[in-house]
Amino acid sequence: MERGKMAEAESLETAAEHERILREIESTDTACIGPTLRSVYDGEEHGRFMEKLETRIRNHDREIEKMCNFHYQGFVDSITELLKVRGEAQKLKNQVTDTNRKLQHEGKELVIAMEELKQCRLQQRNISATVDKLMLCLPVLEMYSKLRDQMKTKRHYPALKTLEHLEHTYLPQVSHYRFCKVMVDNIPKLREEIKDVSMSDLKDFLESIRKHSDKIGETAMKQAQQQRNLDNIILQQPRIGSKRKSKKDAYTILDTEIESTSPKSEQDSGILDVEDEEDDEEVPGAQDLVDFSPVYRCLHIYSVLGARETFENYYRKQRRKQARLVLQPPSNMHETLDGYRKYFNQIVGFFVVEDHILHTTQGLVNRAYIDELWEMALSKTIAALRTHSSYCSDPNLVLDLKNLIVLFADTLQVYGFPVNQLFDMLLEIRDQYSETLLKKWSGIFRTILDSDNYSPIPVTSEEMYKKVVGQFPFQDIELEKQSFPKKFPFSEFVPKVYNQIKEFIYACLKFSEDLHLSSTEIDDMIRKSTNLLLTRTLSNSLQNVIKRKNIGLTELVQIIINTTHLEKSCKYLEEFITNITNVLPETVHTTKLYGTTTFKDARHAAEEEIYTNLNQKIDQFLQLADYDWMTGDLDNKASDYLVDLIAFLRSTFAVFTHLPGKVAQTACMSACKHLATSLMQLLLEAEVRQLTLGALQQFNLDVRECEQFARSGPVPGFQEDTLQLAFIDLRQLLDLFIQWDWSTYLADYGQPNCKYLRVNPVTALTLLEKISREMKDTSRKNNMFAQFRKNERDKQKLIDTVAKQLRGLISSHHS
């Protein structure tokens, strides 16, 4: 129903509209009918309008016909006019047709242009839409291109930032495009690539750092040396109201603060090239030598990627490995100082880098990790130094090593590392240094003693005299008064040895520098080392010279004189040590020098050697003795060998004038005693089974020659006949046999004031038996007793009686 009503309503509206159009056609000029007709064609009821138009035309035709019928003439006139109009209409039609043809011809290009315009408008709309889409896509593509450029130029940290912007800001706006999906799928790969490349840069950096650690360490140690030199200059200058700055303030290694949240630069060079500076130029800081940006970038990259812990573990693990490599000393490190220096430079370089990383990053390394590495490094370094320094036998190298260790310790102390153990180890090396010094000075003393001529030093001018006195503290007013030329009592080795002892003290003092020791400790160290030099090294050198086989009495005498003067110089050595250490010898616990004992021992050894040497010379002369124990003839003069021996002793003791009196007296007494003992042994020698009284007389002449030598006083200082007492045993024994005073001997034996107190019954019996054998020898028929056999028998009986009594004395003495 409703549809029917609606259709009816529409039909009425359409009919009304058509009616209106027809009225307009009927009332409008022919020239203006176009718009009206156009409205018909624009509508949808074209057929119905045509029907209405046909109906209206028929109605008008009927009206016309009625009018024509009513006005026929007028109709004829109208037909006539109409015919005329038809001609005009035909013309008009032709004109319209021609105009239409022209219009169609002209409009064809317009239609084509309109089609082209339509296509252009369509393209314009498409281009505009494309531009809009491209405006969304271009930032994405630009960011991706920028990402690729950054990856290509190895700017990985900015590349990671660009990747984040691309992923979270730009790609979501164009996520429906396929290329965006490809980008999204490629992002994890790019992250891994950045991660891998940054790790590769870090590995290159670590490798470069490992190779250049010695350069970094060398730079740091140069800075420490410069600072120490500066401190020494400041200490030498007067300081007014100002305190000395801390070493740490003067270092520039950590002056430059580096933000831990951004890389330093975009270049990946781990080590910058630095030319070797001259000593007077400013040494660059460690941060000037090293570009740490690869570490910072890699740290930031791994932090952004959420793998910071992985990076920290990897970095620490690799650095631990490098530390172990750095701490492994070369096998020939002990051969040269450069070996030690390179070893220290690498260690310092390693810890300078770690300290810089500690202060410029947040948590990549921490203090506990650094302390752990340092404890390991300290133990390994000390062990290596103990091992390699033990091979060193050159004191200069040991001293240079000590200075290098001090510089090494001072450098690391600036960075806050504890170095007390290094200084403790230096005290151990000090003992080794002392040993190497003692070995060196042993050679020096040996050379001095071997090259000395063991003659007093002659001087021919005041200049030469002052030179010797300047080298050795010697004062002798009598010698000063003498005119030139004159001689010092000692030989050249005295000033040389004295100066070498001072040089040794200086060498000991050099080692104690910069060890942070007190003056008392330095003084104690110097004194102990000097005591070792005197009591061991110098003493052994002197003993070796004294014990030499070819040493002469003149040399031994000169050694005694020299050691006497050296002994007197010990107080000056005490003063010398006091002056350089500023520790008074009266201070409690101050070690005293044992030089006096050393030189006394050497002198005593030389004295003993003189005694031994004299005795050996005497023995050599006695080997020339050729007694004919069976002779009955008397030469009435001493044996030639003994005359020569006495002459030798006189000349020898003449040289002893410069010796201390007791030494010369002891030597003389020892020689006389040894001579008397040796002569007694000749007389009682078991191989001499028989001897005559004539031979005994000749032997008595020799002993008298010896007594004459003793009475002559070859060495001043003996009281009266003291030296003759050396021959008293021989004298009493010979007097007993020559005077044949047995009754007195046997009667007075055992009494304190007896005439033959020094004659031993055993000795007398031995000599008596030798004479008895000679008298009993039947083969000697031509002796002086042959024609007086009764006297011979009587004397033999006397000898037997005396021998029996002597045996009785011996038996009673033993019982």
TrEMBL record:
Region (Disordered): 257-280
Protein's UniProt keywords contain Translocase: no
Domain named Exocyst complex subunit EXOC6/Sec15 C-terminal: residues: 421-770
Signal sequence residues: none
Keyword annotations from UniProtKB, A to Z: Coiled coil, Exocytosis, Transport
Annotated GO biological process: Golgi to plasma membrane transport; intracellular protein transport; vesicle tethering involved in exocytosis
Keyword Transport set for record: yes
Annotated Gene3D superfamilies: Dsl1p vesicle tethering complex, Tip20p subunit, domain D, Exocyst complex subunit Sec15 C-terminal domain, N-terminal subdomain
Chain ranges of the Exocyst complex component EXOC6/Sec15 N-terminal domain: 52-221
Coiled-coil regions, chain positions: 82-109
A GO cellular-component term linked to this record: plasma membrane
Family to which this protein belongs: Belongs to the SEC15 family.
Protein name in UniProt: Exocyst complex component
Lineage: Eukaryota, Metazoa, Chordata, Craniata, Vertebrata
Gene: EXOC6B
